[in-house]
Each structure stands twice: as C-alpha cells, then as structure tokens.
Amino acid sequence: MNSRNYFFSTRFLVSVFSLKDLPTDIGLEIAFCGRSNSGKSSVLNAITRNKKLAKTSKTPGRTRAINIFCIDDQKMNRIADLPGYGFARVSKQTQKEWAKLITAYLNSRQSLRGLVIIMDIRHPFKESDLTLIDWCSETNTPLLIVLNKSDKLSKSGVLREVEKANLMLKQMNLKGQALGFSSTKTTGIEKLEEKLKRWFDV
Ligand SMILES: Nc1nc2c(ncn2[C@@H]2O[C@H](COP(=O)(O)OP(=O)(O)O)[C@@H](O)[C@H]2O)c(=O)[nH]1
Ligand SMILES: [Mg+2]
Q1: At 134, is the secondary structure helix, strand, or coil?
Q2: Helices 189-200 & 40-48, crossing angle to 10 degrees?
Q3: Which of 29, 118, 144, 172 qualifies as a FRET site for 162, CA 20 to 30 Å off?
Q4: Atom of ligand 1 nearest to the CA of 44
Q5: Model pTM greater than 0.70?
Q6: CA atoms within 13 A on the CB side of 131
C-alpha cells in the first residue's frame, strides 16, 4: 500500500463499553482522547478521508463507548477513539464511569503505542487534559497534542498557541509535541500523518 494513503482503508471494528470486549491486545493501538466536542471524531475522519467513519456531533457528550478502528489488517494497527471527558451536562455518575473506563483502558492496554490528546485550540489544557498529560509523564507514554479547530484563530494566533503548548511540554520535561490542526480545512494533516505512521512503524 502506498504509505501516503495509509489511513484510507481504515474501517470501524467495534464499539465497547467494557474492557473485556476489546479486540485482542496485540499489534499497536494509538488512543485518541480529549474533551467532548474537541473534535476527536473529526480528526479521525480527516486523516482517513472518510467523513462517515466516526460519528461527529454538535451535541457534546454523545460518545460513551471506546470505538476501535482498524487501520491496517495485516499489522493490526488500530486507533481507539476514547469517550470524551469533561462534559458538564452528563451526570456526575456517568462522568465517573467514563473516567473509570478510560483509566482502566490506559492502565491495562499493552498494545498502546501512544496518546493523541485532541484539544480545541481556543480552550487548551483543561484539568482533564492535564491529568492525561501527567499520566503520560508518569508512564513514559509517547504523547502528541493536536490543537484542533485552528481555522478559528489567525495564523499568528495558531503559532502562539502551538509555541505555548510546546514550551509547556518542555517545562514538564515531556518528550511530547504539539501540532496545530484543522479538521475542516485539513491544515497540519501531513505532520499528523507522519507522526502516527512513525508510531505505527510504517
Ligand atoms: N471549525 C471547526 N470545527 C470543528 C473542527 N473539528 C471539529 N469541529 C466541529 O466540532 C464539533 C465536535 O466535533 P466531533 O468530531 O464530534 O468532536 P468529539 O466529540 O471530540 O468527537 C462538530 O460540530 C464538528 O463539526 C475544526 O477543525 N474546525
Ligand atoms: Mg466523537
């Protein structure tokens, strides 16, 4: 397969509400996480060039499950779209359940190759994002921060936010990196694809 099109034949594999239903823990999995409505599903649809792959929603807090997508059947490379967190309008109980599911996933998944944290570039580094960043730091997990919706800021605004984010990662002594991105305009898509492919070893 032409490596430029590496993500084009991505298919939906399974939607799970419990870890025991996850696909066998082999191959490599990259987890997409982020606050509800930050654009996780849209980023996935952008890199796969498939607007219908992951459901996007104007109403935040819809995705309760871990959705697994298969990028490459031979290598079993996968992307896990984790439930969005930090949505105020769902009950505390539901939020707790999501947090439990995400934590259990992160702490048990052997095939986890790295974490992509998707943030709205206008509202980055909220508390739950920082919790995940800390977790990456503690567990030495590779981290990529995607500052999505960059089309909502000026070019200089985007540069400023990306620089701020990279500085912050450096100060935290993290090997992670931040990228500006727009799902709607596909800005930053080459850099994101390069990074993911490197993680997937292709
Ligand atoms: N302007 C703009 N809107 C976006 C972008 N990415 C996602 N959105 C919108 O943000 C909303 C939430 O997107 P979605 O992918 O469902 O977010 P998720 O909850 O994190 O999966 C939808 O209305 C999307 O159309 C982007 O890059 N730019
Ligand atoms: Mg989603």
Answers
A1: helix
A2: 80
A3: 29
A4: 15
A5: yes
A6: 12
Amino acid at 9: S
Superfamily of domain 3-200: P-loop containing nucleotide triphosphate hydrolases (3.40.50.300)
Spans of all domains in the chain: 3-200
Please name which ligand lies nearest the alpha carbon of 44. Answer: 1
Distances (CA, A) of 115 to 14, 69, 138, 141: 19, 15, 13, 7
Distance of alpha carbon 126 from alpha carbon 121, whole angstroms: 11
Residues with beta carbon inside 6 Å of ligand 1? 34, 36-42, 56-58, 60, 84, 148-149, 151-152, 182-184
Tell me how far the alpha carbon of residue 26 lies from the centroid of ligand 1, in angstroms.
30
pLDDT in tens, the chain (202 residues): 455 689 999 999 999 999 999 999 999 999 999 998 999 999 999 999 999 998 887 766 556 789 999 999 899 999 999 988 877 677 888 888 888 899 999 999 999 999 999 999 999 999 989 999 999 999 999 999 999 999 999 999 999 999 999 999 999 889 899 999 999 999 999 999 999 999 999 9
**Residue 142 DSSP SS3:** coil
Tokens of 194: 């390069």
